[in-house]
């Protein structure tokens, strides 16, 4: 299967977002080609957060041994820190800091028990689709927090049908049979009964599976004659309404349309919500899946607001594949489009573990004849795409949930690296999700100089299901093996893959350090827990290294950007597993500017 089979939720659900009239288009979102965006030459702009100076040119923050710098990957606590404009100019004792900043510099004293830490970095999420599915007027919410039984799902549909006319589409996101009682797929036998007069299109929480009824199939002109194996069939060989991988996107034209102006508002609201969780830098791992280069223009418009996190991203391979043969006409990476920094190319090698489409070496527990889907059946096909971008200086980002896909990634990357000996070795190429993986594979990743990033909510939200239903023990116990990451010396990080799981870095830290399952509190794979300090690296300095930004962000050190958080409690005093419940983000600062404010801290001058 070619790269078109590498489906993401955004590709299906963002289809049609740009289907508006010229009058509806904001002036900054009319760009539609690489040339229009000036990506065929060196791009202007620094790709960094743009904002005003702080309220005082130089400010000192004073704690009491509770400013955690993460210098050298350690908590490395200090008493004080000073910033000038967007930059940290001194760190250490109050006396040391005042010698640099000046004894008359305003001092902001932390309240009792409060702490300062580096801003959090989420290195893998999807802004546009997260914003879209936050609009429950258009995209119904079938997420696990709402749907725990098939009756719950039916209730969501019934409520929607009460407001719809005959023939109007019922579109939703978030249904996950692995987390629903008795694990029912939404086959035609169910969806045809629910909505006999309205087409239904519901996307699985993973984004790699979807469900439609017969009316939807008819409108899309899909019949039993179709040869694509990603349209699932019942035991009689008839289509059953379950879709996998690229088949999901066949129905994208039927998604309800919204105007770019409305969409920009939703996206900014989403980013501000992430800032409230302490996120100071985000990385979108799949720009352009739906509409190609116009998505860059949309993102540029979204980021035209100084009170937002830093933003980086990778282009989906589908966006740039037409340029593979002549990449020299494009500007070298990174591309700085307004406040967005685009540096990578994203490839999908397999699917979703909980969706039974991740490419695994051993069959799934509940589907003994299923090894998942490898999107590139031949290594040569993947190699032919990787090498040109490697030569051109792009970061390679490979979606690899299953160990069979990870094997392919390691093989092909090794061949690609040997083929390009003069490549930029400062770039940390990445394996994403890395859910089912052996320690031997992780050792090989270190040998190749790779980084890995885990969708760590797999442990918290899906851990019991993986162990008892999807993978079985012992595979299910050691998903996302962070202790192995640490022990073999990997550059590891944690991410949300939002909207697959919520952006909440304190929860990532909790999960990596304690591996507690929701809602029972049971520990999954105790041997894979890591220390709080090791977990903190996974949301600060390590993702900064993976993004090539460790000289600027990820720790609180002289010369770096003033990206930091004021927390309501010193996290070292909280039991791992409970930080997201007990530690409040009071303030979020990016480049010396407060972009989120909860409760004031005491100010002494």
UniProtKB/TrEMBL annotation:
Q: Name one GO molecular function term.
A: hydrolase activity, acting on carbon-nitrogen (but not peptide) bonds
CDD domains, A to Z: YtcJ_like
Q: Which InterPro entries match?
A: Amidohydro_3, Metal-dep_hydrolase_composite, Metal_Hydrolase, YtcJ-like
List, for all copies, the residue spans of the domain called Amidohydrolase.
112-596
Q: What's the superkingdom here?
A: Eukaryota
* Record's signal peptide: none
PANTHER family named in the record: IMIDAZOLONEPROPIONASE (PTHR22642), PROTEIN LONG AFTER FAR-RED 3 (PTHR22642:SF2)
Tell me the protein's name. Answer: Amidohydrolase 3 domain-containing protein
Which species is this record about?
Cudoniella acicularis
